[in-house]
Amino acid sequence: MTKIGIILGSVRSGRRGGQVAQWVLERAGQRTDAEFELIDLQDYQLPVLTAPIPAMAARGVYDDERTQAFSAAIAACDGFVVVTSEHNLSMPGALKNALDHLYVEWNDKAAGFVSYGVNGGVRAVEQLKLVSTALQLAVVAAPVILPFATEFEGQAALRPGKAAVTSLDLMLDKVLAWSTAMSMLRSGPGAEAEIRARIAAIIDGIHAKDLDALRRIYAPDVVSFDVEPPLQHIGVDAKLKNWARVFTVFEDVSYELRDLSIAVGVDIAFGHAFGRLSGKLATGAATDGMWVRATFCFRRVGGAWLIVHDQASVPVDVLTGRVIADLEP
Ligand SMILES: Cc1cc2nc3c(=O)[nH]c(=O)nc-3n(C[C@H](O)[C@H](O)[C@H](O)COP(=O)(O)O)c2cc1C
To answer: Which atom of ligand 1 is nearest to the CA of 14?
Structure first.
């Protein structure tokens, strides 16, 4: 079922935003066509962004546990209703900070806004529209605007009028319809393009001997059946040890892939190809290497496609146990 996250953007003590988010959640909860969950930024205690790698490059892999938890919550949603106040004609800093922490988790999803403030928070919404564009988050409905003077009793207690309720219902209709439709984007050709980009990043990482770049492509608990022993390499550190070994064996290394074929499901994808490492060995000798059969299995983790299993093998003469290393694709 389509899942919509209702993001409460103010983390201030004594915030009015709690009532607003609760109103949205209760109204949305009367619907049976989607699941709604409150995502309260106060619960995540995200630090001011200090991560060395921007979320756009980190693609779902984060060191900070708070970011990991926030990533999992946002990745699990198909769309969002963002509840925002207005701070100095923009959104609260905590909300901008939270948006900046992630990237792929927002991509190709739909959003609507509910704002409140002296003038209803309209300028915060205008800023949010800009930021959403950068995050490839589609703004798909007119916002619900709640000025203090008309929608809050004594400027403090939310008492939304009939027009505000109608406006919320219309916005929820749109966010839900677009969120459902856009889920196709994330498992269709866009997903295959992202997986191909991941595999291209493996090749770039090998050419640059960049273990950090390679680390970002594998799930932390990847299980790898590599050509070399042992039978299995469990975890990204074990997988990277193999690549580190390759980088000591080769002075210059090149990785060629042929006949890459990819199949994509909702959260699982696999690909297969023929791969060959070649280049100049540390001894100074040049080698053409040998072709191996390579299989890559991806899972969408925190909105990003990561390798959870891979296999590289060479044909063996089963009678003699001899490896057949001279076959060409
Ligand atoms: C730093 C700051 C700046 C503010 N700037 C604006 C503003 O530009 N426009 C406005 O309508 N309200 C402004 N306000 C008032 C807030 O909209 C109001 O305090 C609102 O209740 C904040 O949301 P919250 O209570 O959920 O934190 C500002 C409040 C703060 C704390």
So the answer is: 25
